[in-house]
C-alpha cells in the first residue's frame, strides 16, 4: 500500500482543485484514498486519476504516488508535464522513498521520504488498514526498514477495513505487543474474509502456535499466510503447517509467500523451495524478486534464462495446475 509524499508544499487555506494520481493503478493505494477522503472532507474539489490527464491539468495542486519503482518513469513524465503547465506538485509513495535521487534527477523535485503524518491517521472507509508500522527484520530485499523503520509503532485508532476482501497490511503483526494484537482481534473479529495480507512471521508463530491460533482463530480469516523467503524459515514454516493441519486447516487456506529469484539464488533452488511448500501441505505464493532500486519491470536474475521466473509463476502460482500435473510434464 502506498504511503509517503514530495516537495512544493501545499497550504490549503481556501477551496482548491486537487488531483490525486495513483501511478501504480490498478493496485489499491491506501495513501491516495486517504488523501481523497481528507481533501473532500475539507471541502475541496478533488479528482482521482491513474495518470496526469485533462482534469489534473486544470487543478491547482496534484499529488503523485507510486508504490513500485518500475512505475517511476511514468510518474516522472507526469510530473514534468504538470510542472510545464505551472501546476504545484507533491510526489511520494514507497517507490519515491526507495529511489528519491531518480526522481530528483528526472524532475528536479525532492520527494517526501517515508510516511506522511498529514495522511497517516486519516480515518474513513478503506479496503485496507495498518494497525502498526515497522518490522524488526532487516531483509535486504525489503523496503520496509527504510520506509517504516525497524521499531514497531502501534496504532489504536486504525480504520476497520471494508469490502469483499478487507486487508490488514501490517508488515509484521506478530512483532507487536500482545496487548495490541488482542485489541486488533477484538476490533476486527466481525469482519468477514479478513486478510492479514503480509502474513504471520513463522519464526514468531512457531514459538507458541497454540497461543496465536487461539487468538487469530477468533477472526474470520480468509487464509493463514506465512512466508518462506530465507533459509532459516524452512523448518519454522513446516512446524507451523503441521500445527495448522492438526487444527483441520487444509492446503487451500495455508498460503506461503515464497521469494524467488533473489540474490545468489538459482532457478533450481527456487523451484525446490516452491515444491517443498507443496510437499508439506501448503499453497505456495511465488514472490518475484526485483532490486528495490530498479525501474525495470521485467527483471531476470543473474544466471537465469529469460522466462524462467514466468515458468515458476505459471506452474506454482496456480494450484489447479500443480495439483493435476507433474512439473516435468508441465515443463515439456
| Strand order, largest beta sheet | 2-1-3-4
User: Which band does the percent of strand residues land in?
Assistant: 5-15%
* Total number of beta strands: 12
Largest sheet descriptor: 4 strands, parallel
* H-E string: EHEEHEHHHEEHEEHEHHEHEHEHHH
The tally of structural domains comes to 2
Compute the number of helices: 14
Round the mean pLDDT to the nearest integer and report it.
93
Query: What would you call the structural class?
Result: alpha/beta
Tell me the span between the first and last alpha carbons: 38 Å
State the shape: globular
**Helicity, as a percent range:** 25-40%
Cα Rg: 21 Å
What low-confidence regions span 5 or more consecutive residues with pLDDT below 50? 1-13
Comma- or semicolon-separated keywords:
four-stranded parallel sheet; 14% strand; alpha/beta; 35% helix; 2 domains; Rossmann fold; 332 residues
Could you characterize what this model shows?
The chain contains 14 helices and 12 strands. With 332 residues, it is an alpha/beta fold. The protein has 2 domains: 17-117, Cobalamin-binding domain (Rossmann fold); 120-331. The strands form 4 sheets. Strands 2-1-3-4 form a 4-stranded parallel β-sheet, with helices on both faces. A 3-stranded parallel β-sheet has the order 5-8-9, with no helix packed on it. Helix 2 links the parallel strand 3 and strand 4. Helix 2 runs parallel beside helix 4 and helix 11 (267-279) packs parallel to helix 12. The chain is globular and about 60 Å long. The two termini are 38 Å apart. The relative contact order is 0.09.
Structure in a nutshell:
The chain is about 35% helix and about 15% strand.
